[in-house]
Task: structure prediction
Amino acid sequence: MVSESGGSKLPRILVIDDETAIQRFLKTALDDVEYSVHQATTGHAGLAAAVAVRPDVILLDLGLPDLDGIEVIRRIREWSQVPIIVVSVREREDDKVRALDTGADDYLTKPFGVGELLARVKVALRRSLQQVPEPVFRVDDLQVDLPHRRVSVRGAEVQLTPTEYELLRMLVTHAGKVLTHSQILKQIWGVAYLEQPHVLRVNISNLRRKIELDASRPRYILTEPAVGYRLKAGE
Amino acid sequence: MDHSTSNHSAAASHPHRGRAPASSGVRYLAAVALVAVATGICEQARPFLSPVNMVMGYLLVVVLAAVFLGRRPAMASAFLGVLAFDYFFVPPRFSFRIADKEYLVTFLALFTVGGVISTLVARARESLEALKVRERQTTSLYHLSRDLAAAADAEAVLDAVVRNLEESLDSKLVVFLPKDGELALAAQSQGLEQDPDGLDLAGWCFRSRRMAGRGTDSFSSSTWTYIPLKALADTLGVLGVRFANGDAVESLQSHRLLNAFASLIAMALERVRLFQGAQEAQILKARENLERALLNSISHDLRTPLAVITGALSALIDEGEKLTGDSRTDLLLTARDEAGRLNRFVANLLDMTRLEAGALKLRLEPCDVQDLIGCALAAVEQRLGATEVAVQLEPELPLVSIDMVLMIQVLVNLLDNALKHTPAGGTIEISARQGDGQLAIAVADRGPGVPEHDLARIFDKFYSTPVPEGVGGTGLGLSICKGIVEAHGGTIRAENRDAGGLRVVVGIPLVEPREGETDHGV
Result:
């Protein structure tokens, strides 16, 4: 599925962005011993590079001069499942949601720090390389034992309703990646519930009350305003 | 029964005929009847009265006729009285012949006195009628001017015109006002079919500044009368009138009244126009001031962090090797924090611009209040430092329909504001509760508060309280909060807390879930 990244070779990151300053900053930040960075400044060049370079992760700016970023995602998804991380400014929540629903894996809001960027790249790489998920998910004090359907916080088991467990399981299997409201609604409740977003809000709220230490400052289930939710990446 | 029924309300229409309730034929018949009655009484009294004294009875009839029937019936009754007196009582009886020629003097006297009395009485009555008409006109002018004085805009003026004139003129009305250089219908009586030539005639009237239509020298075949609404320098519009009683407009008095109405209306329109002009000038000036302040503020707020970032980075590039590790880290952190500040400022500026341009589209979605507060806290986490934040939520809060991204911005701005006025180690309190059909989210600090008279002003653009050096704000944050909250149909207000500090309360209307959305399982 994903382009090969052999044992000794560095993971390849393709950056598609028309801003040279951003290109320069990303290259400096990423292009060291850990990654090899390839660059494209237009949508078409990016599509060509995706074929030629066979990157392990693509960083895509939605505001390209020649092609709509959404279109770039669609064309890549026609033949590849390579993780795509979208970078966009705050005002374009709709674009982010469209990008994610079209097949992008994650997004970053400009301006972002390198720490955040590296964390997202790591999550994307791990998910693209690791085919079989860990049976037991752990992050901080939260432990989700998938085979036994057991959830515990700081060793104490937590009782969840079937819907809450399904919701948590979906978040766990995509840990670190943002899931849009409609993706979650479609999978857990079915297409008929796409126009009923409040069931999702209520269940997230209940789930948080059960697994978060302070539901007003959630550490595990993070809200991506107007986009969706993200479970903190596991260890 | 032709015109007289409408006379009562038509102040201007029939000053001459007064308010006699009967038509002229009936009135002449009444005069004949009066004479007949007088003759009958005199016949009964004949044994006790000399014929000369019977004349008094006929004189009485003339006076009564003059008072109640008008001038002409009174004259007729005088004439008939003379004939009846001659025929029935002057010897030889039942003949018009006169035995004693002295009776001729009596006839002449009876007839003359009858004529004079009827003329005098009728004139007195006419002037009384005229007085009443004038009083009604004065009253209607007064009512109109009172209503016009209260009218704040052209629409209210037109409303008052139609309402008052319809009644006091007993007529249908149209008003044309110029709009974009063309005369256009601005108001009309209800249920009125349009005069097809109306616009043309009104246009002529508008350009020539003269009356046109019925009762005037121009286009007198029309059923309408058009009067220009003349202000000092130009014509402000045209008033069109169609009387229920078509003849009414012919009289001089109704012309006078129409002109009086027209000048009242013109004055009111002129006043409204001048007032609007003055207001626009004021708004323009306020906007100019605001723009100047905005430019000053923006250039300051953009340059300050840029200066710090440039300074810090150039220090690192030029002197990096001479600096200790600590000061290098310090410079880098400063540059990063300032860049963050710059980013927040630009975000606020964009929000402000979109709010002002009316381009802000709300993406409403059901939202958990706790989630909302959590997101806002996550956004300010880095800047909180040693400041504590206490969150107090009423249990069982419902979901609210809001644009989450914008509402987070509101809370972030409120938190930033509270943070600015809270000394390190202090506590900021956030609370949410529901009541009165709305959700109230409050952000409270223990800072110095705001002088009472400024509480409402802190949401104005560029209002900024004195704050410790280095944390000065743009004065944009709270006005953006106000804009966003009001776009949600909500309210925002500030109050000083009893034990010191400021509390800002955001009220968001709670909308009942739509039918059918409530049942779906959780």
Q: What stands out?
A: Chain B has four domains: 4-137, 155-275, 279-354, 360-509. The two ends of chain B are 79 Å apart (CA to CA). Confidence is low (pLDDT under 50) at residues 1-21, 467-472, 513-522 of chain B.
